[in-house]
Structure formats: structure tokens, C-alpha cells
């Protein structure tokens, strides 16, 4: 088995294997795996929040499970082209095939209200924090919405075009077109203290109170 992607969640871990469409999902820990006897195959992306897991299949279908049972996705979700990473809360977020964004909570019947402001999409990247969201539009501009008591939705006016975003519990990160990393929100444990020697990066991530990036040379930095 060749592992292509792995994520760590609150009480479990999750991996998907074999490219280009992963043959299956391997999970371990509390309530992490799909229901017994129900293999989930042709997976192209995985996201997890709390103890709930969402996978995106190659046909655009999203499957969610929690504590050994499948959970219905919102009826208006439709086909999806990208799942957003879950950086600190239990909310899921996805980009539909038409570029619009749908947010939902796996613990609320029907997923709850789609709390996405007018004018956010179409988007190419999206991420969910504890109670806020961040997205990159097709024009490479960044939009944040949700709870912003610590400034996690206050996009810097000089940010410029971006190619990626990440959302932690109270922090937001953006990967700019030139490979630099910007951050805003609450610098509780140094999660916004971006190393001065970080250099150009190709990917970013954010957790409860930490941040991570993959540099152009393949090295990983955490802070």
C-alpha cells in the first residue's frame, strides 16, 4: 500500500492510499474508520474535524461518517471539486463544481444553514477554522467570514494575490503568489510568528494553536 495523504485529528488518524484515485481509506483511533463492511474507494481528498471524517470521491460525491456510522450531507451540496481543510472546529466546507462554497456541520440534521455571504465565489481554495472561514476567489483575492473577535477575518489590505489559505482555531494564513506566507488573527502560542527564514513555500496548514508550511525545497517548518 502506498500512502498518498495522511491527517491527524483530535482522537484519531486518517490516511488514503494509492494514486491517482486512492483505492481506499485507512483510519485508526477513536471513531475514525468508516462503518464496518462499507469500503470507501476512489478517494481523491480527505478532511477531518473533531471525530467526523469527510472524503471526496473522484465522481464529485462527498461521504461523511462519525463514530462508525454514515452521516447524510446537505441535500443542496451537489457535486464537489474540493474539500476545505478543517483547522480547529467541527464545521466542513467545500467548493462545488460551479465554484460556490457550502459550509455545514455534520452534527446538525441537514447540515445547518449555509453561512456564506453574497459575493464570496467562485472560489478555488477554501478552509474552515473554529468559527470562521477563508477562501481564495478565482481572481486570487482572499475573503474571510464568520466570528472575528481576534481579527481572524480581518484580511490585510496589502495582501495581494494568493494561491492557498489555511484556518486554525483563532488564526488565518495565506500563501501568496510569490510563495510567501502571511498570517493574521490571535497569536496565542506563536502560531502567527512566521519564521523570518521561512523562504518560499508551496503549501500551508493551521491547527488549534500551531501553523505549518512546506517550503519550495520540500522541507517542513512548524511554529
Describe this structure in words.
It is a single chain. The strands form six sheets. The protein has a four-stranded antiparallel sheet with strand order 4-5-6-7, with no helix packed on it. The relative contact order is 0.10. The model is unreliable at 1-22 (pLDDT under 50). The chain has 223 residues and is mainly β. It has no helices and 19 strands.
Strand content: 35-45%
- General shape: globular
Helical/strand content category: mainly beta
Number of strands: 19
Helix content: under 10%
Computed CA radius of gyration, to the nearest angstrom: 17 Å
Order of helices and strands: EEEEEEEEEEEEEEEEEEE
- Kindly, what is the distance between the CA atoms of the first and last residues, rounded to a whole number of angstroms? 31 Å
Oligomer: single chain
Q: Work out the helix count.
A: 0
Q: Could you list the spans in which at least 5 consecutive residues all have pLDDT below 50? A: 1-22
Largest sheet: 4 strands, antiparallel
How confident overall, as mean pLDDT? 82
Main-sheet strand order equals 4-5-6-7
Outline of the structure:
By secondary structure, this protein is mainly beta. The chain is built from no helices and 19 strands.
Please tag this protein with its features.
mainly beta, four-stranded antiparallel beta sheet
Which SSEs are present, and which pair or pack?
Layout: E1 3-8, E2 12-17, E3 24-29, E4 43-49, E5 52-57, E6 62-66, E7 69-71, E8 80-83, E9 92-96, E10 101-104, E11 123-128, E12 132-137, E13 142-146, E14 162-167, E15 171-176, E16 181-185, E17 201-206, E18 211-215, E19 220-222
Antiparallel strand pairs: 1-2, 2-3, 4-5, 5-6, 6-7, 8-9, 9-10, 11-12, 12-13, 14-15, 15-16, 17-18, 18-19
